[in-house]
Amino acid sequence: xxxxxxxxxxxxxxxxxxxxxxxxxxxxxxxxxxxxxxxxxxxxxxxxxxxxxxxxxxxxxxxxxxxxxxxxxxxxxxxxxxxxxxxxxxxxxxxxxxxxxxxxxxxxxxxxxxxxxxxxxxxxxxxxxxxxxxxxxxxxxxxxxxxxxxxxxxxxxxxxxxxxxxxxxxxxxxxxxxxxxxxxxxxxxxxxxxxxxxxxxxxxxxxxxxxxxxxxxxxxxxxxxxxxxxxxxxxxxxxxxxxxxxxxxxxxxxxxxxxxxxxxxxxxxxxxxxxxxxxxxxxxxxxxxxxxxxxxxxxxxxxxxxxxxxxxxxxxxxxxxx
Length: 322
What we know:
This protein is α+β, with helices and mostly antiparallel strands. The protein has 2 domains: 4-161, Ribosomal Protein S5, domain 2, CATH 3.30.230; 162-308, 2-Layer Sandwich (Alpha-Beta Plaits), CATH 3.30.70. It has helices at residues 65-78, 100-115, 122-132, 136-139, 182-192, 196-216, 219-238, 249-263, 287-295; strands at residues 4-9, 12-16, 33-39, 43-50, 54-57, 60-61, 83-90, 144-147, 155-158, 166-172, 269-271, 278-283, 302-308, 313-317. The strands form 2 sheets. Strands 2, 3, 8, 9, 10, 11, 12 and 13 form an 8-stranded antiparallel β-sheet that branches. Strands 6-5-7-4-1-14 form a 6-stranded mixed β-sheet. The chain is globular and about 60 Å long. The model has no long low-confidence stretch (mean pLDDT 94).
């Protein structure tokens, strides 16, 4: 068997949300998404050439069907017939609303390309990673990234150095897996929510405001766009038949706490993905008060503070220890 190649990737937090695919198109986003890389959280993946494709996460073998399209796209992009064995581990809870699929498929793409002894541009890696998870197209880049509606690859808008004082406080309100996976919930929303089409249309209108706010490093302007984006997305999800609700009481408590902080002049702007966790953007000087306030919202809430993260990190090992 060949040596192991490794790749580490940080999750991609969507500030403007991706939720829904184009009709009749495989894994092409219906909405634009603007995101930041969560430095300090990571997926670490080791891969090598093998007789067949397999992926384990923390030692648990994954369903092959979930990765079949990814591996087929990878082989086509590289022009090889190789198969891959991959082992992966996250530094944060899996499938709980912390974008583990984004960092997972980005790291998997990077490790497999290196294991095959080939090279792809970041745009090429983004395209391959998107086949596994659309948000993974953004996670191959560090800093701030944009995946336009209908695009096959993301692009970096600003590097990690663009906003050195920005921090993202992740309030972990629930450590277990969410009750409905994002893929299934997304399809249910697209097919069965009367609010889905308005959500797609409004997402396009929010993008210029968010890009301008990011360029100016204007937290309030960006926060307002973020707030509208996640509110619209969850309204569409909740309007599905049957309704899908990812939030838990602690989620609502943290959202209310952020509103109260803003009323006191503290810039604490929250966003919520398809899960119960709350991510709060703030300046470095406000991290302590934001973190303390979030933890006081409900017993068991823990917080992790992230800076803007870098891109993929590559390496090699004789044998992975996970």
